[in-house]
Amino acid sequence: MIQRREFWMILLLSIVTCGIYTYYYLYQITKDLNTMAGNDGKTVDPTIVVVLSIVTCGIYTVWWYYQMGNRIQQMGMSNNIPVEENGTTYLMWYLIGYLVCGLGSYVAMYLFIKNFNNIAFAYNSHISNGNPYQQNPSM
After folding, report:
1. pTM as predicted
2. Cα gap 5→110, rounded to integer Å
């Protein structure tokens, strides 16, 4: 089962741990997305995501949101789950948000978690009911 994420809890834990929890969040979300997507050819090593995010001082994280946003939208389309935002939406929130004291990154994270939870709910429902879940969007 894929765990549901709460934006406010992630934000609070990130603040309390001075940003360290953010890397744990990236690791877990990447791992869960790989599980839900199956063999879609876009598998990403969660450890690499964390290392590159640290080394690039967060720049890779913006790219990650872009890539995973598109991946979530493809999973939504293949399973008839409405996902309005895509990678470009998250990228724009991040870039425009940097001009407004970084607040756009929180909007991007909120939207991402909302869509992730929708996909996770559908995945968990399919798994618990024994229904097939369309993991590979290209099929």
Report:
1. 0.88
2. 10
